[in-house]
Hints:
The complex is a heterodimer. By secondary structure, chain A is mainly alpha-helical. Chain A has 16 helices and two strands. In chain A, strands 1-2 form a two-stranded antiparallel ribbon. Chain A is globular. The model of chain A is unreliable at 9-14 and 335-344 (pLDDT under 50). Chain B is mainly α. Chain B is built from eleven helices and two strands, in the order ααααββααααααα. Chain B has helices at 5-36, 43-61, 65-91, 96-118, 143-165, 167-177, 179-184, 189-211, 221-236, 241-262, 267-281; strands spanning 133-136, 139-142. A two-stranded antiparallel ribbon of chain B has the order 1-2. The longest helix of chain B has 32 residues, at 5-36. Chain B is globular and about 60 Å long. The model of chain B has no long low-confidence stretch (mean pLDDT 89). The chains are: A mainly alpha, B mainly alpha. At the A-B interface, helix 6, helix 12 and helix 14 of A face helix 3, helix 4, helix 9 and helix 11 of B.
Amino acid sequence: MDAPSRALWQGEDVSSWRRATAPTVILAIAVAYPLVIQGPYWQRLGALVLLGAIGASAWNIVGGYAGQISIGHALFYGIGAYAPLLLYTVFKTPLLVGIPAGVVCSVLVAFVIGRPTFRLRGHYFTMGTIAVAELTRLGFQNWAFVGGPNGLAGPVQGRAWWDLTFRGSTVYYYVFLFTLCLVLLVTHLLERARFGHYLRAIKDSERASRSLGIPVSRYKLYALMLSAAFTAVAGSFYGMMIGFVDPNSVFGILISVEMVIVATLGGSGRLFGPLIGALILIPLKQLTNAYMGSSGSGVSLLAYGVVIMALSAAEPNGLIGIWSNRHRIMRLLPGRRSGEAYER
Amino acid sequence: MHFTVGALVQTAIDGLLLGGVYGLIAVGLTLIWGMMDVVNFAHGEFVMIGMYVAYVVVLMTHADVAVFTIASALVLFALGVVIYYGLIRYLLRGPMIAQILGTFGLSLALQYAIFWIFSPNYITLPGNALAGSFAFRGVHVPLAQLIAGVFSVVMSAAMFVLLTRTRVGKQMLAVSENRDASMLMGIQPDRVQALAWGISAASAGIAGALLATFFYLFPEVGTTFVLLAFVVVCLGGFGSVPGAIVSGLVVGLIQAYVGYLGGSSYKNMAVFGVFLAVLWMRPQGLFGKAKT
């Protein structure tokens, strides 16, 4: 560690107790949740929230920290979801073996498509990522080896623990919780490391970072590869939990957008932003589906769309931004007005 | 499979006629994209609502194609203006990602509002006023596609004239170049931008009404069109109306020929494949100018 960052580290040491309290409490609640709340519906909801948080946190590395807005992460999610089930279908390998296989494939794909796609700027980059994912979705639909439009199914009953195929959601819940902690830990270390500083510099101004000697292209590529690896893990978990994948359900544009929505409306480029987004948006979607979706009228997704619209108009920096802006909100209260409150 | 000249000409005509409609859809998208740097993910839903407006008008009045196309244009114009004042105005203050998500939320809301009202079933326009086709030296041209394709290209050209040769067009250019300076010149940016959203939505509505004469209607139909329109806009260079028209025709031709030679399940793969190849080799689009 170099001198300035060591000073920073020691300076923060005073408040590190306070800083560590909140995550510890959250973790304790998360560990206790399936023990306290019984019932398959709620345990499954918990697992889905964690799965959504893993995907969104993975996106956050390249989309949030490096500011490269990809709407093609379904590509990595889908590769991760297909790998275990494809290996199972062809070689009957344990599903657990498929996870690293999916990660390796995803990282390779990220490496290959990263360089040409990162030459694109702004909306063109976003469009490029959409096109890669759509092309892959259509390709899988036309490819008989991976089941074509029908997709692939896993074992009906797990042969042993290494198939990660369970009836209830509790085991999934703890596997997902452990993985999410791992992803957040890596992101946290990355935030403090040179890598994290580089990514934020690239987000602020690519040209300035380049002129300061940051190897911009290389670090964007690293960020994409790391993000792809975690996204593939989330996809593998999805495939195992559902026991079935098809091109539309894992490569569809909705999967990519969902990751972006959860991460951004929680707070992109912030460690706990995606988790906050997942905690609010995924139950909202599941519960509106449970209470309003039964009629098949689509009202639940109408409501979900309205919520997304309202949040992006009112709080574009994510729900975590409400907490950061609390001083601004306080100033809006009567008796505490200052000139700044009138600024738009 | 026969590679007769007739079949190849037939395929070209089918592709060009559908491509004309893609061009019109993309013109509305590229107007907003070029002027406000906003990618409207709900643009496909504008097309979809245009189709449903045509459906309702035909169902109630048995009007012909001119009437329901105008009705779609008017309804969508109003919708575009309302959406600008109700949503886009606020999104424009936020970062690019807020605009992507905001318009995506809008697309979900519109899609499922239609789903709620009309059910997810596939429907077609009642009556078959445009069901005929005529043959010319062995090439069959369905009347509905002919009207849709030709009228779309005419409307796109009219849009180009509107944007480059009229006062309104100059005002839009001024606002997109420099919002503050345009205010000093007595232009009200909000009003001009609302007008742009109205025009953009109206052109999508016209395209939708024309498509409804030969295409199924269902709430998710917009998703297909919006992705193709993104491709068309990027290929044409964003903000370029002539680029959008030409690349719309190119995309229509690619779809038609790949569908004819390789099977229709490969036609959109070919479109996205060509798109990626162009993006990777010419990041500014086929007709765009290189930006440093």
